[in-house]
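re the bet — no i am not wrong, look at it urself. input seq straight from the record:
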Amino acid sequence: MKRAVVLVESEGRLKPPGPGEYLDALGEAVYALIQLVPPGCVVSYSDIAKALGLSPRLVALIMKRNRHPIVIPCHRVVMKNGSLGGYTFRGRPNPSLKRALLALEGVVFRDNGRVDYEALECGKRVLRSLIRRW
């Protein structure tokens, strides 16, 4: 698996991040991708991980650290089987809010509570159009 190349700006130059900057730098890349997913579409943790060469668990950790929910729409990231996965809002788990936000954006749910296949495919098409090597 290829790894994401991450650089941070310091004194007007790009350089590899230090230990404390690494997760923040990866988070910026993850957040930038998620902001490109339109309302009504979702992507999986695995889709984001594959696009950036990361672990899906690392993507989930980055989502949990999102300090700007709604602005950075981490509610649009679900599990690859369509299950919602977790959602933390203001430091507390709130998966019902995640479902409500997705429903408000037009995401359809199946009888088993999972996101409809079309919403996942929509998100994958968006990522594929952005990441040519995928």
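see?? The first strand starts at residue 8 and ends at 10. told u. also Residues 117-130 form the longest helix (14 residues). so pay up
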